[in-house]
Design goal:
Layout lengths: L2 H27 L3 H14 L5 H6 L14 H26 L9 E2 L7 H20 L4 H6 L8 H14 L6 H22 L3 H21 L4 H15 L14 H26 L3 H13 L1 H12 L9 H4 L15 H9 L9 H9 L1 H22 L4 H11 L3 H6 L4 H4 L2 H10 L3 E3 L2 E2 L1
Antiparallel strand pairs: 1-2, 2-3
Amino acid sequence: MPMSNVLALLNLLLSTVLLVVLIRNIVRHGMRISTISLLVFVITNVIGISFVPIILKKELLNTGSVMLPFQPGAYTAQVISAAIFVLASFCFLYISHHDSKLPSHLEMKRKMPGYLWFVGGFVFLIGVALWLKYMLFGSGLNIALSTKYGFFDFSQSAASRAEAKEILQAGQGYFRALIASYSIFPLSVAMIRLFGRCKVFFFFTWTTGTILSLLFAVSTRQKAPPMIVIVCFIAILAVSEKQNARIKDIVRKRRRKRIVIGIVVVFLLSSFFYYVTQGESFVISMQKVILRIFVTPAATAHLWYIAFPARFPFQGISNVFLIRSPTANDGSAITIQDIAFETTGSVFSANASFLAMGWSGLGYIGIFLGIIAFLSFLRIMDRATCRLNGLPMKLIFCLMIPGFPPLMSSSLMDMVFIGTIPAILFFALSLRVRIKGMNL
């Protein structure tokens, strides 16, 4: 048996065991930010590594002029990186399980401070101010209105995104509009949803926030951002208002059907989106969605292990926590397009998770540092939200949705600086909870 197949089976075994442990943890102890984040990352970035050899050797992901290569040496490094992550996750779960400082039987105060809805409205206005500079006074609105998704060839889609990147310039306010659309608008709408008394005001801010965020997402000329925005705001609208419901009730039998139905609906909508934009049969579109979720992130990350250090030297610790800008590169740093061109001969966005980013920085040391930082962020968010249940916790899970794309295919610090982690912490700290008669 080839060594790559042995490594694939080893990775599949380790990742499956971790997946089972995470699901068991959720069923027994309820959902936490850490368990959900680890679950999403394992499904989208770790398990798929096991299928990289067969997928790339049979050229199942090759489209048009893009030919993804496979190198056994790079694959070995990729599997070792995943194994380090899995073992670190086991240690993290063990420590979290034996931490007696995380309370489990807590109750939200029924009467919230009246001024907090005003805080939510003020945060919304801040988001509008940040959004306007790029979308209205910059090039964002023009890019959004000229965007089309009906490309039937990968090269055309890549060329469209490259055209948008050429239009972008530093100082236009793209990054501020991104923070507003992915974090500030969802945060403010969630606060108004929880603290507000006027449903008309909530629906107004919800509708406005959805439209503004969707316009920015369309201006990226990528498929995932519009879908993420829609799912996030629909989730905020759809969550239950029962504040005293235990979060772990969501895995009980009476709610399992709703979860399954929700997953199926999102999958079918994603498949329909691919069907409309790619011009292929619905069955092929469903297959592409499955590959895009479970295999493509790992296959694209494989390019990073090929590129470093064989094609490019390790970039240092700054690359481990790199904040990537969509504006034109000044030539002093290696871009994701450079990695794609060097390894495949084609120009496209070779996005990869923080594991591949860590590898490009300092090899295995960079991976170790990235994992420690990632698990530390999860620990902080767990501690900040451990006293919450019911509607507040469900809204926090809604705020997590825009942070999943950076988790799956971006730099570690992107989760921080697009505002996902600060938004969750701000929302959690704005709540007043009662623990055995003590106000915190």
